[in-house]
Amino acid sequence: MAENTSSETTPRRLPPLAALRAFEATARHLSVKHAAQELSVTPTAVSHQLRRLEQVLGVTLFERLPRRLVLSAHGAALYPGTRDGFDALEQAVARLRAPPSRKTLTVSATPAFAARWLLPRAPGLRAVAPEFDLHVHASLDAVDLHAGQADAAIRYGSGKWRALDAELLWRERFAPVCSPLLGVKSAAGLRRQTLLHHQWRSHARRPVTWALWQREAGLDRLDVASGPVFSDETHAILAALGGQGVALLSLTLVAEELRSGALVQPCGPVIEGAGYYLVYPAHRRDDDAVRAVRAWIGPQADNTMC
């Protein structure tokens, strides 16, 4: 427990709470009668509390004009503080009375990663943190975690992001994949196939493209500039599943299709890319939401690497 500061241990020097409450209600309504109705007391009782408060403070809080009441300069100075103080007190009491609300855990990832890796593993969150409901923010743009747009994110890259803790989940690997119906058996067979491409984000470090794969493979006469280009990996995966060509894809994102035989990896080489990282603001490491996402994602990532 943190040490008490002097402001927490020094007794508060405040007028009687009943008098402050009568003043706040009267100042808000500019009517003793309406204040009395709100407080369920008589107008005489409210007037007594107002006089008591003025005596304690040694100032006049209201100007009592014919048929109306207005705040004095001292009353106008006191009113905002009492109003805000009672508002805060009311909200604190309301929170205690309200039924406990569900907690929300927001995780950001690219649309392809969210659809093909994160969502199939969503039930695992309930197992380790049943008090949280998962919200998935799927976007190609990196969200501002410091602004609270998400509690955490899974990002592909070098692991170096300003003021963010980054936990390596695994290193990604890429290889040509296609439908077995195409009958591709070797790298040379790619020359007769349509190459499928997907756009890499502009900030991606060393994007894994067909041009890079060709250099690593040492394969000449491969037209790496032709073929359809998709804005998202998911679309390239669907095109490959439909037999529309050969795609250079994340082996993580098509792991299920490779296991089932819906897609095959006809040849190498396999290109090692950057890493997938779980990232979150460094100052939030011990927050409940961050603890929950780490407890959930960590074991899932370990199973992915197995």
TrEMBL record:
Kindly state which keywords UniProt assigns to this record, in alphabetical order: DNA-binding, Transcription, Transcription regulation
Q: Species name for this entry?
A: Cupriavidus basilensis OR16
Sequence ranges assigned to domain HTH lysR-type in this UniProt record: 15-72
Q: One GO molecular-function annotation for this sequence?
A: DNA-binding transcription factor activity
Q: SUPFAM superfamilies, alphabetically? A: Periplasmic binding protein-like II, Winged helix' DNA-binding domain
Can you name this protein?
LysR family transcriptional regulator
Tell whether Nucleotide-binding is among the UniProt keywords.
no
For the keyword DNA-binding, the answer is: yes
Q: Which GO terms describe its biological process?
A: DNA-templated transcription
InterPro entries the UniProt entry points to = LysR-type_TF_proteobact-type, LysR_HTH_N, LysR_subst-bd, WH-like_DNA-bd_sf, WH_DNA-bd_sf
